[in-house]
Amino acid sequence: MSSTSEQLRDGVRVEEDTRDTFAAPADESAAGKRYFVVIGSDVARRVCGALRSAGHLVRHLAQPTDEDLRRALDQEVAGVAVLLDDDVESLRYALAVEHIRPGVRLVVTVFDRTVAEQLVRVVPNCQVTSPADVAAPVLLAACLQPDLLAIDRTPSGHVGARRQGDAVTLETYRPPRALKCQAWLGKIRGQLRPHDGSSRIMLTGLAGLLAVLLADWAWSVGFNHRPPVEAFFEAVRTVATVGPAAPHGSNAYLVFAGLAMLVTIVFTAVFTAGMVDRLLAPRSIGVVGPRALPRAGHVVVVGLGQVGLRLCTRLQHLGVGVIAVERDPAAPNLRLARALGVPVVIGDATDKFVLRRLSLHTAEAMAAVASDDLDNIAVSVAARAVAPDLRVVIRAGDHEAIAETQSLFRIGIVHDLGSLSAAYTTASLTGLRPRGVLAHGRRLLVERADGTFTPWPHAVRCDHHQDGAAVPADGAAVPADGGGDRPCGRVCPEGVAQRT
């Protein structure tokens, strides 16, 4: 969801297109059935099902060879979608399609923004997107202000989309002052409050050394009447276990100084042990600074994949504290999260002991956005047990065992990222050049290039388990080359993609 600068004024109303099915642009609507090639797995199955439900011919390939790709493109093609999770594979297929069919409408999923920019530069007719970019505005609104459909960034600030009757209103969004103050105080409270054992050991040793230093300085100034600077110098000598410069003062002070030097040896060992452990082990949480765990007004994001990382950065840009939780200590996005100043807790978010250390009772929301729907549900149930009043946002819909996400609304706000991405891709293939996709209950709204919103049907998965030939709406297989690919008409009868 995005808008032009003219649409950022409060109260701007954008009229909504009330059609219930998507349509091609005016210059292509008279062409009737068109032929599309879709490459990929889950989202590709949804796109294939949506296109076939609209009466188009679709050739769905999972991981085609170069020869398979040539056969699939050996006729007039209205558009090609490359929907893979691997950026390298997506780039290879995109370049191969452009080589075989120069200038064809091409929609490619690429997560890395540098790769995406280079691909668009090399292939101008390519539209690059990713499920993370499509879903981030919707998830952000669900975490911060559920009465909004989406919150997106624009060059002039953030804009929120609000459903009002049969229209969508775009308005400038600013986080409530109470939320910003709570988030700021939460970040302050998170300083010098370590999360892991080694940090607590290090701070304990440091606190002990400082206590000995302060006590020796106070004794010298208060009872021995030493000048403050000389008292500080002698206190440092005591902490360094070399003793006062000269024995002076009462016998009680000499006994105190001797005991302080012995205690200092213990505190120095404790501090050194904690420091060495922090230096040698990779850390994603800071004791002080931006990577310290906030204690209030923050959002807990479970799953540091592409979706989770995008959501964390969007929250940071709004000034909201964030804590990411990742189970895999070797997750590829950990280094990037550290560079962006995102605190990351390595642990299992289904463990209540881990959740209790994340200050869920004072958090603004928790978003379970891992790639496994079942894990997200387990995390949400565990979070409800720890903090019953917590707002929970769930990423669901990718797992085929969860075909009906409405049943999950009792435990959180559910968004089907697969449907959002499929709607964006299908709209792109049919020539709408969408800016974004909004979710309103069970309804999807695609934002057109002119700022209007069009209702969009939820995509149903096709039943392609193998690479298939093009299939028309009546279910009869139409092989592109008469080859041996299995016709998907055998598994998608009567031209209707089946819901799994």
Overview of the molecule:
Among the domains are: 33-129 and 463-500, Rossmann fold; 197-280, Helix Hairpins (Orthogonal Bundle), CATH 1.10.287; 289-396, Rossmann fold. By secondary structure, it is α/β, with parallel strands linked by helices. Helices cover 38% and strands 17% of the residues. A six-stranded parallel beta sheet has the order 12-11-10-13-14-15, with helices on both faces. Strands 3-2-4-5-6 form a five-stranded parallel beta sheet, with helices on both faces. The protein has a four-stranded antiparallel beta sheet with strand order 1-9-8-7.
- Low confidence ranges: 2-31, 471-500
Query: What is the helix content?
Result: 25-40%
The radius of gyration computed from the alpha-carbon positions, rounded to a whole number of angstroms, is: 30 Å
Give the mean pLDDT: 80
Distance between the termini: 28 Å
Structural class: alpha/beta
Q: How many DSSP E strands?
A: 18
What portion of residues belong to β-strands? Answer: 15-25%
CATH superfamily of the domain at 33-129 and 463-500: NAD(P)-binding Rossmann-like Domain
Strand order of the largest sheet: 12-11-10-13-14-15
Briefly note the CATH topology name of the domain at 33-129 and 463-500: Rossmann fold
Major sheet attributes? 6 strands, parallel
For the record, the CATH class of the domain at 33-129 and 463-500 is: Alpha Beta
Gross CATH architecture of the domain at 33-129 and 463-500 = 3-Layer(aba) Sandwich
Q: What is the 3D shape? A: elongated
Helix count equals: 14
